[in-house]
Amino acid sequence: MSQQLTIALAKGRILDDTLALLARAGIEPADNLSSSRKLVFSTNQDHIKLVLIRSADVPVYVQYGAADLGVAGKDVLREHGGEGLYERVDLKIATCKMMTAGFADRTRPRGRLKVATKYPEITRDFFLQQGQQVELIKLYGSMELAPIVGLADLIVDLVDTGKTLKANGLIPLEHIMDISSRLIVNRASLKMKNQAVKDLVSKMEKAVEESFG
Ligand code: PRP
After folding, report:
1. What separation in Å is there between the alpha carbon of 142 and the centre of ligand 1?
2. Domain ranges in the chain?
3. What is the pLDDT of residues 160-184, one digit of tens each?
4. What is the pTM of this model?
5. CA 33, CA 11: separation in Å to the nearest integer?
6. Pick from 103, 136, 119: which is nearest to 177 by CA?
7. Atom 2, ligand 1: residue with shortest CA distance
8. Which of 26, 87, 95, 146 is in Cβ range 3.0-4.6 Å of 151 for a Cys bridge?
9. Whose CA is nearest to atom 10 of ligand 1?
10. Superfamily assignment of 5-94+180-212 in CATH?
11. Which CATH class is domain 97-177?
C-alpha cells in the first residue's frame, strides 16, 4: 500500500493557484474546496488527502506532522520560523512584495517610529538591520488604516497591485522581500515517507516548470 500523505492548503487568495498546480501534478480533490464547508478532502489519489486551514496555521500543522506537506506563503513561513519543516519548492504563485508604506508627504518623527503590521518578525528584522529602533504595533488586517487614524507612522504589509495602498492615500516606500508560496515538508515525513514525499515533490516541481518555465 502506498504511504498516506496529508497536504495542508491555505484558504484565501492562494487557493485557486494552488489547486491549479495540484491538478497539473495529477491531484484533484473530490469536492469543490472553495464552496464546501468541509475541512478534510479526499482526492482522486487514494493515498493523498487535503486539509483546508488558515494560512498562518499551515506551517504549524506541518511542523507537528499533522500534515506531511503544506503550501504557505514565504511571509507566513518567515513569521513561523521554520522549526520542524523543510521548504522544498518555490511554487511561484501568489507572488507579491513585502514593503513598508506610509504617506508620501509625512516627515518621519524624531522619536521612535511606530510601525503597524501583521508581520512582527519580518518587521523587527528589517528595522534592526537598518539600525532603527521602532515600536511595533501588531494588527491582524487592514493595516492601511493605521497611518490614517494616527495609530502608526508606517505599515509593513504585502503589496500586490498597489491598489489598496493607493485607495487609502499611501505609497509603497521600502522593499523588504519578494514573496511567493512554497511547498513545505515535515522533517519526519521526509524520512518516514520518503518515497511518497519525493514523488509528490518532483511532480510539483514539474508542474511549476510547466506552468512558469
Ligand atoms: C493583502 C494585503 C493588502 C492587499 C494588497 O490583503 O494585506 O491589504 O492584499 O493587495 P494590492 O496591492 O493588490 O491592493 P489580503 O486581501 O490578502 O487580506 P488581509 O488584509 O487579510 O491580509
Report:
1. 8
2. 5-94+180-212, 97-177
3. 999 999 999 999 999 999 999 999 9
4. 0.94
5. 9
6. 119
7. 158
8. 146
9. 160
10. Periplasmic binding protein-like II (3.40.190.10)
11. alpha beta
